[in-house]
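Dear Dr. H.,

I hope your travels went smoothly. While you were away I took the liberty of generating a structure for the chain from your last submission, since the lab meeting agenda had it listed for discussion. I wanted you to have the full record in hand beforehand rather than looking at slides cold. The sequence, exactly as received, is reproduced here:
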Amino acid sequence: MKQKSTHVFYHPLSLRHDTGQGHPERPERIKAVLDHLDKSGIQEAFTWVTPEEASGEQILANHGNSYIESVERLAASGGGFLDADTVVSSESYQAALRATGACVQAIDAVVKKEANNAFCLNRPPGHHARADTAMGFCLFNSIAIGARHAIQKHGMERVFILDWDVHHGNGTQESFYEDPAVFFCSIHQSPLYPETGLSHEIGSGEGEGFTLNLTVPDGTRGDLYQALFEEKVLPAMHKFQPELILISAGFDAHRLDPLAGVQLEDEDFDRLTRGVLKAADALCEGRVVSVLEGGYDLEGLSGGVEQCLRAMADIS
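The corresponding predicted structure, in token form, is as follows:
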């Protein structure tokens, strides 16, 4: 049987990270996507992989030990709040280990050519998580941990992270603000939570020039996103010459999303994804790993993920 090109990393523990009634980052997000992919008839087009836990060493590459232990303790005690928005339940720590493990193992699969590309369909999300602080629904910064894994385990010297979640990935930016090995690029609505990611934030020290923040106003549609991608993101990618491209794939820039005002359609995520894939084919042997971040309207999230996956598997 021919090896399927796109691997989807998913663990059922994603459904058992319980954030409580009324919380926008809820298990129904993953359920909705799974149901949608099943009904769309494309679920069988992918190789589905159940990820193992990330190791302590892998998480320590981006987070402090005392913070990791505090998340574990809170989960073991039955759960509670790490901040006003970020909830831990009894199984959240294990779910976060699997979500992070998914990103690490997806990178391994792509680098080893076991998969052409990969999508990590798990929660909790990660891109707001700072080294020692939970924030914005996020516990461990999966994509930052994945980038460090690519550098430390696979010897990569240049990793490009594109974050198109509608909220700025402040945690990821902080992780690599002084690091020239990782180029962090974010397209996000501003002003909006977490009120970071302004255009003058370009990195510092050896990392100066390796952070690119592209802000868009409330009401922005897909044509501006496409223009920013072609005129700003692609030139940055080609200049940087990455060996791997990671996507913080949030779908809360969808027009249906309740937490922001950007007006993207399902098809805009297809165009963005295909643009990244084309660049990756030219720059890094097609190595692309996408990691689910936000997206809080179930219809908008499901439609956006479907379009992203169709592009990754080259399904019309």
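Two observations you may find useful: The beta strands are 6-9, 47-49, 79-81, 87-89, 117-120, 159-163, 182-189, 211-216, 244-249, 288-292. The chain has a mean pLDDT of 97.

With kind regards,
E. W.
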